[in-house]
Amino acid sequence: MTDTNETATADDGGELDPREAAKLLDHTKRQAQRQFDLTPPLLTLIRAAVVLVGYGAVWWSVRDQHPYQGPSLTAIAVIYGAVIFVIVVSGVVFQRATSGVSGQSRRQQGAYGLAFGTVWIAVGVFQGALRFDGASNAIVYGVFPAAGQLLVVGAAVAGMAAAREDWRTLGVAIAVIALGTGSAFAGPAGVWGIIAIGGSVITIGYAAVQVWQRRG
Q1: For residue 184, how many other CB atoms are within 10 A of its CB?
Q2: Residue 124's pLDDT is what?
Q3: Which of 80, 195, 201, 208 is the most buried (most CB within 10 A)?
Q4: pLDDT higher than 70, residue 133
């Protein structure tokens, strides 16, 4: 009789087993994270392809330059076209993920966008200053634009990830900073090729971790 009453209580919406409640909470949390994930694995893989194609195109155009002059206009068009493409795709994903979201979260995302936009502009302006100050083509059109972007943006992402205790993103940011630092020793031409391969490998690894965590 007691068993019957306990079953009836459970069927009528009685107390939920703590383990079942924990599983339900974890499932709900993962569902929410997927819904509001601003960088789903597919987008990460697209970014990996953009890194490989963009930096690879520049490397191909400068690989045999002696002395170093800089990327061709075609290579520049390819890398900027790839960047614009991934920005557009990322914008679409962002709009879908944040649809209906307002308040502090929305303002925070806007602040992040402003910060990273400022970083990109600052790197470009500094590149112009190097040219104005008489730096060589190897620095102005080679090592600095290739590795400098990774160092500055990687540091910004690392700081943001550390503040949010986002260890996955922090690990990737540190790897990007290391890649930018090490690739600079390859010279103005080699730096582009190393970043093309290393950057795509890091990004693909990040996508793999995303998939693993989603299935965990």
Answers
A1: 21
A2: 87
A3: 195
A4: yes
Residue among 38, 51, 42, 113 at smallest CA distance from 82: 51
Return d(Cα 17, Cα 13) in angstroms, integer: 11
Chain centre to alpha carbon of residue 185 = 24
Which token pair is 167?
Answer: 């260890």
3 state SS for 116-154 = HHHHHHHHHHHHHHHHHCCCCHHHHHHHHHHHHHHHHHH
Per-residue model confidence as pLDDT tens digits over 72-130: 999 999 988 988 888 888 777 767 766 655 556 666 666 777 877 888 888 889 999 99
Gap between the Cα atoms of 21 and 158, Å rounded? 35
Tally of CB atoms within 10 A around 80: 11
Q: Which of 178, 144, 134, 149 is nearest to 71 (CA)?
A: 144
Q: 200: how many CB neighbours lie within 10 A of its CB?
A: 21
Report the alpha-carbon distance of residue 181 to residue 116 in Å, rounded.
Answer: 20
